[in-house]
Amino acid sequence: MISNKVDIWSLGVIFYEILFGKQPFGLSGTQDLFLNQKIDNKWDIEIESGVCISTFAKDFIQKCLKVDVDKRLDPFSAINHPYFNSEFDLNELA
After folding, report:
1. What is the pLDDT of residues 58-67, one digit of tens each?
2. Which residues constitute the domain of residue 70?
């Protein structure tokens, strides 16, 4: 069943593309090939260490792009995520 968490997935994809300039998934083939592959937790996004974004941003993107829908942020949790609601020190950037 499709829920509003599909929109959270899309938000995660958009944030990822803005920050990294590439798609988070499916770079090695066509969309059909990607969609026909078995989707499981191996698709959970891992953000490389050494990338200069805050830990809040990394956490937000990773939780938006969880393959397991039960582990993905819901809209209320997304808007209340520390990425949007915390003041952070620029020295905290990874």
Report:
1. 999 999 999 8
2. 1-24+49-87
pLDDT tens track for 17-74:
998 888 887 666 666 665 666 555 556 677 777 778 888 889 999 999 998 889 999 9
**Contact predicate 60/81, CB 8 Å:** yes
Structural domain tally of the chain?
A: 1
Query: What pTM was estimated for this model as a whole?
Result: 0.74
**What is the distance between the alpha carbons of residues 92 and 38, in angstroms, rounded to a whole number?**
37
User: Residue 70 belongs to a domain with what CATH number?
Assistant: 1.10.510.10
The two structure tokens encoding residue 80: 């209340």
Flag whether 92 is in a domain. Answer: no
Q: Could you give the CA distance from residue 43 to residue 78 in angstroms, rounded to a whole number?
A: 20
List the structure tokens of 94: 């990874």
**Closest residue by Cα to residue 49 from 94, 3, 1:** 94
Residue 47 and residue 87 in contact, taking contact as beta carbons nearer than 8 Å = no
